[in-house]
Design a protein that fits this description.
With 265 residues, chain A is of the alpha/beta class. Chain A is built from nine helices and eight strands. Chain A has a five-stranded mixed beta sheet, with helices on one face. Chain A has a three-stranded parallel beta sheet with strand order 2-1-3. The radius of gyration of chain B is 24 Å and the shape is globular. Classes of the chains: A alpha/beta (265), B alpha/beta (436). At the A-B interface, helix 5, strand 4, helix 6, helix 8 and helix 9 of A face helix 1, strand 1, strand 2, strand 3 and helix 2 of B.
């Protein structure tokens, strides 16, 4: 068995898929994995590290789009953006392997755009689960994310999502707030989406955020926050009070990114 | 009480949110509208919840009244003119500023504007129209707007407002016209149903027009309504029949049910010491989904002889147990509509089953991964001719096992105690009665 170790990113896994084809070990004898480290090595397996290459990744992306369609392509990217906890990694098929084998199956059937309907297939099913997890969190975050207006009028938002959903969020808010300057900062991953009024957004790595800059709120900011809190508290019906239902619908891990439940407003 | 002093925006927002909170609908669903690159806002068909309030309800829209002054005296309503409560009114500018500033901070998905009746229905409707006009054409707001149509307002005003809103609603308030006459003497079925019909016709005419040419859209997310549950003696059968009628004859998108809260401590209305009838409300919503997504009819779920829902089993399980002749269903062969009727299979998993089985036969473990709730479904299905465990297709047996599954009564209601269940349960069957 040949195990190709690739980086945990879209480019990384696509590069892995390219090499899995190119090396011609046969798909049965090849596995992809994003897990590094000697302690997980298995006997009778050859390990190879794959270097991430954006040009190669682009080739793979083009093939996937033309053969499987944009819908399948974006589902695959969504699956790759999902976070796998160490526990999940033990229990389930590795993300890179699931995507790789799904692509192999998709390219081998006559109508590849239907590949994600093969939910009986364990690899396809894993891709489906991962993609759904990313999609669901992104959909939650579209609502739970909050912008604060900085002194210079820029809208700033700090988020802590489990999955890499920043591009999905940035797409949504670029469409929604075309005339605003806004920044969405994924704090754990140190990546920010920066949108300038009237243009498309850009992703930027931010190793060290300037805390002074992002804590200088405009004069009006506190006023609207207080108005929002007034609204939030007045809208609840006392006779139906139900904190359990509240945290079931809005899981606690999202609370820190809101204004009304973060406990520091 | 007349307020002479100028009130702060904060105080107004507090009063007019508080007065609007008993309106149930807070959904921002039903319309897909991409941003246009200039104005602020877009809409997503599934809707987006922005937060959940302390009662666990979704907050999607800025739900406020324009004013809580009212010339009507509906006895269930906090804003009745006979009540001594603090009154306030927004100006259109204030509503626009709040909406725009909340929206750009991503607090809300849009505006839900309702109102008490100030001076006359026409006067109030005109104020609402002015507000929406400013919001759409001066502030260029492209997000979601849900607006209440005021009963008795001029049809011309209703129509003009409809071109600015995404969804319109007129509350039916109570399931029967008798109850309405008793509790809301200034409202009548006629003043409620007439604008409802007008909006329905408007939507249809607009759809026909849009097929031929580009035109402004009229109430693109459709209309909804709400009924108060538990203030009057109607049975679940009556309530659901009314809802079914509204879906079929008025083309409504949603009917909402609101568990009655006796805010006015009015002695003509039931006092509910155990709190609002939340479980009954929950069962009505479950049945409502069965009507809208699962092709059920009210006559299949309830009848004159069985006028109320079983509180121990959800309506779908209840139906399945009384129709064991339809089961078991073979997962690899049954058509979509048959799958929909199996407890534990939702419309999403039913769709996935139909897709996935084209490419190979499905097993029980596949079903689990697809999202089927097997602990509920296992009594009613076979995979490749086999059941998951050897079970009996027997009413008592399945019933006993399903009721062992405590999730059938929603957790939040279970934990708030069973005391309140007894309030509306007259004529309800006890677990022993079901089993015997």
């Amino acid at each position: 068995m040949h195990i190709l170790i690739c980086e945990n990113s879209i480019d990384g896994i696509f590069s892995g898929i390219y090499h899995a084809y190119e090396k011609r070990y046969g798909h049965k004898n090849t596995q992809l994995s994003t897990i590094e480290g000697v302690d997980t090595y298995q006997l009778f397996c050859e390990y190879e590290d794959i270097t991430t290459d954006a040009a190669i990744s682009q080739k793979v992306a083009n093939t996937l789009i033309s053969r499987l369609g944009t819908e399948v392509y974006s589902e695959l990217c969504q699956a790759i953006s999902a976070y796998e906890s160490p526990n999940e990694r033990k229990k389930h098929i590795n993300k890179a392997e699931a995507v790789y084998k799904t692509v192999v199956l998709g390219l081998s059937i006559p109508n590849g755009s239907h590949i994600l309907e093969y939910l009986g297939n364990p690899y396809v099913n894993r891709v489906f689960q991962l993609s759904l997890s990313t999609f669901n969190e992104a959909h939650h975050m579209l609502g739970f994310l909050r912008f604060s207006e900085l002194e210079n009028g820029i809208l700033f938002s700090r988020i802590h999502p489990k999955n890499y959903i920043l591009p999905l969020l940035a797409d949504h808010f670029t469409d929604r707030l075309p005339q605003e300057n806004f920044i969405i900062y994924d704090e754990p991953r140190k990546i920010a989406a920066v949108h300038k009024s009237g243009s498309r957004y850009m992703l930027a790595e931010v190793p060290q955020a300037d805390e002074n800059f992002i804590n200088q709120f405009s004069d009006k900011e506190q006023e609207y926050r207080t108005l929002w809190l007034t609204f939030f508290h007045s809208i609840a019906i006392e006779a139906r009070k139900n904190p359990k239902l509240q945290s079931q619908n809005l899981p606690k891990r999202f609370w820190q990114d809101t204004i009304e439940l973060s406990g520091n407003s | 009480m007349q307020i002479t002093q100028e009130m702060s925006l904060m105080e107004k927002l507090h009063i007019l949110t508080d007065a609007a909170k008993y309106d149930v609908a807070c959904t921002s669903s039903g319309v897909d509208r991409a941003g246009n690159g200039k104005s602020m806002g877009n809409c997503l068909a599934p809707g987006i919840c922005h937060t959940f309030s302390a009662d666990g309800r979704c907050v999607s829209l800025l739900k406020i009244l324009f004013t809580n002054e009212c010339i009507f005296n509906c006895s269930y309503c906090l804003n009745s003119c006979e009540n001594d409560v603090k009154r306030a009114s927004f100006t259109p500018e204030e509503i626009c500023t709040l909406t725009m500033e909340f929206y750009r901070r991503n607090y809300i998905e849009g505006l839900f504007l309702s109102s008490g009746i100030l001076v006359s229905p026409d006067y109030t409707m005109d104020l609402i129209y002015q507000t929406l006009y400013q919001l759409r054409h001066i502030h260029h707001f492209n997000g979601y707007i849900h607006v209440k149509s005021i009963p008795g307002a001029d049809p011309v005003l209703v129509e003009q407002t409809g071109y600015l809103a995404d969804r319109m609603s007129i509350n039916l308030e109570l399931p029967t016209s008798d109850s309405l006459r008793k509790l809301a003497p200034y409202k009548s079925r006629k003043t409620i149903l007439k604008p409802m019909r007008q909006i329905q016709n408007g939507i249809q005419a607009n759809k026909n027009e849009l097929m031929i040419r580009k035109a402004p859209r009229f109430v693109p997310a459709g209309q909804s309504t709400q009924m108060i549950i538990g203030a009057t003696p109607e049975s679940d059968f009556q309530v659901m029949s009314v809802a079914e009628g509204l879906y079929q004859n008025f083309g409504l998108k949603r009917v909402f049910y609101s568990a009655f809260v006796n805010v006015n401590h009015n002695s003509n209305l039931p006092m509910l010491p155990g709190g609002p009838p939340l479980l009954r409300e929950h069962r009505l919503y479950q049945a409502d989904w069965l009507l809208r997504y699962y092709h059920f009819q009210v006559s299949e779920l309830l009848s004159e002889d069985r006028p109320d829902f079983n509180i121990f089993l959800d309506p779908k399980c209840d139906w399945a147990i009384r129709h064991l002749e339809c089961f078991p269903v073979e997962i690899n062969q049954a058509d979509y509509r048959t799958l929909l009727r199996v407890p534990g299979i939702g419309y999403k998993s039913a769709g996935r089953i139909v897709q996935a089985r084209k490419h190979g036969t499905l097993t029980f473990s596949d079903l689990k991964k697809i999202g089927v709730v097997l602990k509920r479904a296992l009594y009613f299905i076979t995979c490749n001719g086999r059941m998951m465990y050897p079970t009996k297709l027997d009413e008592d047996y399945i019933c006993r096992n399903l009721m062992g599954d405590r999730t059938l009564i929603p957790r939040e209601i279970r934990e708030s105690g069973y005391r309140q269940l007894s309030l509306f349960d007259e004529g309800m069957v006890s677990p022993e009665a079901i089993l015997s």
